[in-house]
Amino acid sequence: MSFEYIEITDPLYVENKEQTGEENYIMVRAKQYSDVPIKIPNWVPQAHCFTTEFKRHEKELLKAEVYPDDVIGLQSAALHFSFNDVKDMPRPRFIKSHLPVSMLPKRYWEVKPKTIHIRRNPKSVAVSYFYHSQGIHYRGSMDTFLRSFVCEHQFYSPYHAHVIEYNELRDCDNILHVSFEEMKRYLPSVVRKVCQFFGKAYSKAELELLYQHLSFKSMRDNPAVNFENPKGPTKGEPFMRKGEADGWKKELTPEQIHMLDEWTKERVPNPEHRKLFE
Fold first, then answer.
1. 235-274 in b/e burial notation, b at 16+ Cβ within 10 A?
2. Domain named Sulfotransferase: which ranges (predicted)?
3. Domain that holds residue 11
4. Domain total of the chain
5. 66-83: per-residue pLDDT in tens?
């Protein structure tokens, strides 16, 4: 077996899992990770939170085909795709995923497709993730969700380890690192960086059209990316809600902000790594 499955026994999770609709969560740790060229001495991957459904797909994940013209969008925060969807995609494929470093398919490290890793302020992630989860299955309060989030018992947690591990692959020339906040505040700069990464050159007029196309308003109205279809959230807030870099300031109480800040301080003692979460 390539993965270790660990039951969640945390009292907060056990107490709330039926009420919140999270009865089938489980921690999963990769046991084969020697191919990962990470620069953390004596690195051992942490367990990550998934559902028991992961067990059905572990072999598919390990043996998943990766092509040189694939473009992987990795977000730090559900696989956004099913394995059948990926297999049926015409090439070149754009695959969006939240998989941690240790769980990328073996072929990924052999083929090294172009990859963009996007990180986001953890307070912003927490708020966005709460509303997204509400739209799918979550039935608890924001406060309960946040406490579960800082206990690393929300889907794809732990968050900080995910971001730090990808950051320690920064010397891999097939991976570009950007942040959500950077895209919101300096979109033209990020677009130029991405164009350079893919070896593309566009005229000023073409870039202006691209800036408009990539604006939050345009993307919110674009059915190709806004998930307003039967495969997306079924109730509650839309998938693309507000798109604000600092929207968490309007949503979180001072006590919740303090809790999330202390969580980051505890999980990220390295000052250089802590800059990734500002």
1. eeeebbbeeebebbeebbeeebeebbeebbeebbeeeebe
2. 78-267
3. 3-277
4. 1
5. 999 999 988 765 444 566
For 21, phi and psi rounded to 5 degrees? 80, 30
DSSP state of 169: T
User: Which of 117, 150, 119 lies closest to 265, judged by CA?
Assistant: 150
Q: Is the dihedral of CA 48, 54, 57, 58 positive or negative?
A: positive
Of 213, 108, 152, nearest to 8 (Cα)? 152
Long-range CB pairs of 167-172, under 8 A, 24+ apart, other chains included: 167/119, 167/273, 167/276, 168/38, 168/39, 168/40, 169/36, 169/37, 169/38, 169/39, 169/101, 171/39, 172/37, 172/112
Q: What is the DSSP letter of 103?
A: G
The CATH code of the domain that includes 216 is 3.40.50.300
> In whole angstroms, what is the distance from residue 242 CA to residue 237 CA?
10
User: Annotated catalytic, 98?
Assistant: yes
For 28-66, how does the pLDDT look when each residue is reduced to its tens digit (9 = 90+)? 999 999 999 999 999 999 999 999 999 988 888 888 999
Tokens (6 digits) for 174: 């097939």
Distance from C-alpha of 142 to C-alpha of 39, rounded to nearest angstrom? 36
DSSP 170-188: TT-TTEEEEEHHHHHH-HH
Spell out the residues 6+ positions from residue 221 whose beta carbon is closer than 8 angstroms to its own. Answer: none
Catalytic residue among 98, 117, 137, 213: 98
Give CA separation, 107 vs 28, 63, 145, 232, 256, in Å: 20, 8, 35, 29, 41
State the Cα angle at 190 between 188 and 196, rounded to 5°: 105
Q: Which are the contacts of 36, defined by CB distance < 8 A and separation ≥ 6?
A: 43, 101, 102, 104, 109, 169
Residue 9 has pLDDT above 90, yes or no: yes
| Residue the block writes with tokens 């929207």 | 247
| 28 DSSP β-pair partners | 5, 48
